[in-house]
Amino acid sequence: MELMIIYLIVMSLGSIFVNKNHILSILLSLEFMVLTMILFVCYYLSFYMNESYLMMVMLCLSVCESVLGLSIIVLMVRLFGNDYLNSFNLLC
What are the TM regions of this chain, as residue ranges (predicted)? Predict the structure, then answer.
């Protein structure tokens, strides 16, 4: 199980480096990585502790991350007309 979780994390990092043109694909890769981390925490908590409080905190943070990413994409599409990473300049 640990090997599968490590493999999923490496795959999500690889997909970030392969799909680096669109912000939507980067955010989907980050969401996949967060879900893998939640899977790891769930696996860890099921064997060592019987508490799900940390799991709920991580799920709430994941939802907040998704909402912020979606709002950034909507703002970029309204301002620039696309979601390319190279058209987004943080200094403007």
Answer: 24-46, 53-80
